[in-house]
Design a protein that fits this description.
The complex is a heterodimer of chains A (315) and B (292). Chain A is built from twelve helices and two strands, in the order H-H-E-E-H-H-H-H-H-H-H-H-H-H. By secondary structure, chain A is mostly helical. Classes of the chains: A mainly alpha (315), B mainly alpha (292). Chain A: It comes from Lysinibacillus irui.
Amino acid sequence: MVSQKENKTSSVQQLIANSRNQKTKKIVEKAMPTLLFSAAIISILTTFGIVFTLIFETFEFFKRVSITDFLFGTKWLPFSGNEPLFGILPLIAGTLKVTLIAVVVAVPFGIASAIYLSEYASEKTRRIVKPILEVLAGVPTIVYGFFALTFVTPLLQEIVPGLKLFNALSPGIVVGIMILPMITSLSEDAMSSVPNSMREGALALGATKFEVAIKVVLPAALSGIVASVVLAISRAIGETMIVSLAGGSTPKFDLNVTDSIQTMTAYIVQVSTGDAGYGTTIYYSIYSVGFTLFIFTLLMNLLAHYISKRFREVY
Amino acid sequence: MRYMDDTVVMKRMSKRITFNKVWKALFFLATTFALVTLAILLYRIVTQGIDYLNIDFLTNFASRFADKAGIKAALIGSLWLMAVVAPVSIILGVGTAIYLEEYAKKNRINDFIRMNISNLAGVPSIVFGLLGLTIFVRMMGLGKSILAAGLTMSLLILPVIIVAAQEAIRAVPNEQREASYGMGATKWQTILRVVLPAAIPGILTGSILAMSRAIGETAPLVVIGIPVILQFLPNGLLSQFTALPMQIYDWAKRPQEAFQYVAAAGILVLMTVLLLMNSIAIFIRNKFQKRY
């Protein structure tokens, strides 16, 4: 009798406990998606934060400096006392000089090593080389900047006469080395995804490996390769520490690469390390420059996205 | 009917074969270019920095004199920074990844989130610095603190962690989820007890790699205005601090030649930290990653 009673109560307690459990279970089941969604929203808030910050502070800047002067001015002299000039073209020129040199270095080397790794190299070589390229991609840019300043520049000064301590050439080459692994690895992915039947078809017709690589694989993987180059260009435009260590701080609107230059990113660093008081025109100018930089890289990223989507070959 | 002229064919063929050989050599040389550069870079930094790298260097504070300069404040500061970045970025990143992989239906909002994450990955780090300066340092009034810098860095590496976690979660086969549902488990129970444990090696590997990027990142710290010469250690999340890459940047741009060697020694410390983290990531990947 007694034991039966005990049994009954315990089972009732269990039932109550169970239903309570069920309730918390239900709450957790309902709450988790919302909670996780709010984590996902953070990334959207970040983008809004970036865009609104840039637009808001740039708007403040354009209350003081005319937009036409900013967009078409060929002199960037923010620190010249009572008559500062804010024409962004010299900063854009500096950025494009570095980017162009980087592309000239990185594209041929990057695509050539991608061809080697995907078409010629043995599985073993690939297994060794790819992680090393990952190391190269993981080296902090500050280390590359130091390398440019203390090794590449002195080396180039031996070869190029009249090369200044700060110039566009040395950081350009080093930025090229920095974006090289990105081009190699993305292009290699694109080439490896070209199906073997296409290679075999060409080989069966008597083509050499070189002809297969250039006339079959390269055209088939072209969209992926172009997209990787565009992404790398975007990375080069936004690169900061290499150019601010080795590029100098003299914004000039010309084509000279042996002279000191200044890029958009390097200008932001220069102002940030100096003492531009909050609310001064110079303080707001870093946002206008940052906004210009953001637009440039955004366009490049969208272009890369579009190319890889639009021209993707489906096998 | 004329037969093919063997000599002409042979001539053209040998020309094409040589062509192939020459280009193969060129492609190989291009590949070695990157490897040689890496070797030179490491060799230079080791030979320049090794003499300065000793216990004093690790235990001294920054100094105006090259031979007394040390990296203590920066090393400890970087560790503090990671103490903020790791939990914030991993919780947000993995949460987002779980949402996108397990819950998100195909609709406009979720497509927008996905597109947004891939775009965010392409935003230059210096722009994140501007965001941090405005939102965290000024608007929230956190100052140039560990918290402000840590939150900025977390947002910067968030896309990397999300993508890595997404891949790890996607790699868990559906049969495992179905088996769990079949046993009567709810969706969240399935995620927590089946999907996440299986995906953790991949998530950890990606997170550590993202973290090592955050340790080396300089530009956002510069823009936020992190000071360099500090004679004290941080004592809380709102404390001022300096970090390894900031310290190296400051040494590298000093005109005195002696500071070049100090900078190289600092780089050695930074690279050692990165190497350690990378080996942990590789270890986890090799040891725990299963293939289904």
